[in-house]
Amino acid sequence: MILKKQIILAFFSLSLASPLTYGQIFNFNKPDPYKKVFVESNNFGISYLQELENALTKIDRDSLKFEVLNDLAYYWHTRNLGTALEFTKKGLELTSKKNNSLWHGRFQITEGSILLRQEKLDLAEAVLKVAKTKVKESDLAFLNTQLGYVYERRGQLGKAADYALESLSLGEKLNDKKAIGLAYSDLSNLLWKQGKFEEGLDYGLKSLSYFEEGNTIDLDYDFTLYVVGNNYLSLQQYDKAMEYYDHSIEIGERYGFYNNLSDVYISLVDLNVFLNQFSEAEAAGKNAIKYAYLLDNAFMLMRSYLAVGELQNQNENYPAAIENIQKSIEVATPNFGDGFFLSKAYRSLGQAYAENEQFEDAFHSINKYDSLNSIVFTAEADQRISQLQTEFNVTQKENTIQLQKTELQQQQTNQNLISLIAGLLFLMLLVLFISFSNNRKKNKLLKIKNKEKEFLLKEIHHRVKNNLEVVSSLLALQTAQIKDPNIISAMKESQNRVYSMSIIHQRLYQNEYLSSIEMKDYFINLGSHILDSFGEEERIKIHYEMPELHLDVDTAVPLGLIVNELLTNSLKYAFPNNKAGEITIDLDIISDHEIQLLVMDNGIGQTEGEPAKGTGFGKNLINLLTRQLDGTMKVIYTPGTQYFFNFKVDGSS
């Protein structure tokens, strides 16, 4: 009970000593709203895990929810294996329900990681091998690492090395620095267990360089610091070992990596014993046990009790050593798979029994040690790791030679390519120069031809305008011979219609544009002419409420005739008895293919359905021209008269 209270107090003191300060983890306004820890941020702690859990209810995209839930499960496995397994089971249930095989496989990798740390090695192996059939190639390096851990715990170090090298090969193929760093870390740990400390140190330092190159300061980087420290410790470089252990503890306490903390404090027991710092060694042993309990990890707890027992052997406190080492073996039995540490436990127990003069117990313990040791450190395993190491070194040298050959070939290829590109550029420049010269000549000819065509078009419009004026003059001469006022009125209207067309051709040859007419100026000229022809300049005012607007000839001519008819009707019928009045013309763009025309007067108005005054020719002409322009007309009869038109046109500006 006292120990549990100490652990709980330690847990809260750790949480308070490591306050979390981090930015927003989720921004759901972005396409990729999740800011992953140890990828985009190194801010991690209990609050981070809580925020991940809270976010699950707000995420509606399956792939994002699976990713967050899997991270939650994996990161909890550094703090408490039971909690981590609960989140993993949720992920497995959800992905199974959604029939998402890929993410189901990824959750199985996380499940395998947790199960092997719970010493359920057979189950972990089975789950990981099933997951291997579901996930992507980019997931396999991490999966192989977990399978390697399974075989390492069983003492099958050669098979574990095979998986580490497979992960290394995948990492190099995919240029995945994290996978390469993790593979080197695993090889470093395996070589340390084989007693090959120089090689283990070399691989461990390589691993750290890959993690640091990718700025990946995470659980695996922290574990590698511990592994490098172990190799330095075994090489009796105690200051270097302490340096790496301290760095590992700093990261472990910052992020709550309880598994790594327990590992490092176990090694610190040994280091402090070598330095004859027994009180520090005892404190390290207590910390190792504390973090093993927090993690709920039998593997760590077994090793922690073993480390304390070995310390007590050094202090010649053999009864206490026997008690703690027996606790270690009790934690490990019956499902403990790691023969390496179990053999160490029986060796230390045999030593304690012998020193305590319990020779029969010592004999049984040493026999057990010999049995386990012969399983773990087989000649086959040692030979396999040596063979793999040799193969790897040869492959690395061959790769270096091949890389140099490739670089030389690439340089030669680059030189040839540069020469070829230079030749092609010269040819292109020559072709461009010839083409430019030809284009200049063609452009000069085109300008001359365009000027000729422009002159001809202007001349045509000028002649059409002159011909229309001749027609207008003939109508005027004919009108002078007529006495009937109705015929005179009809002739005058015909003159105005001809004039409305002649103005367009006059504008075309006088203005800059040969294909379009500016309508406001055109209507002003037309309106002035009609008022003048009726002698109504003083009595009637015309307002032109419209912007500058250019229309093509095919549209402008019918519009001019329509406005001519409406102005003529207003002057003839809207203002009797010399009544003064106003007429408004408004032409506007509605869209790229639609314009609106409004012609309105404030005269006496008409009654809807009232028979047309005069011959009705003007009304029929307006209807015909409206249909020609694919338009619609609406008339409002009071007050005054208002004509609304909507016309479809090919384009306006």
From TrEMBL:
TPR repeats: 222-255
EC code(s) of this entry: 2.7.13.3
Catalysed reaction equations from the record: ATP + protein L-histidine = ADP + protein N-phospho-L-histidine
GO MF annotations in UniProt: kinase activity
Gene3D superfamilies: Histidine kinase-like ATPase, C-terminal domain, PAS domain, Tetratricopeptide repeat domain
Stretches that traverse the bilayer: 417-437
Domain of life of the source: Bacteria
The protein's name: histidine kinase
Entry keyword set: ATP-binding, Kinase, Membrane, Nucleotide-binding, Phosphoprotein, Signal, TPR repeat, Transferase, Transmembrane, Transmembrane helix
InterPro entries found in the cross-reference section: HATPase_C_sf, HATPase_dom, Sig_transdc_His_kin_sub2_dim/P, TPR-like_helical_dom_sf, TPR_rpt
Annotated Histidine kinase/HSP90-like ATPase domain residues: 554-651
Residues spanning the signal sequence: 1-23
Membrane in keyword set: yes
Keyword Transferase: yes
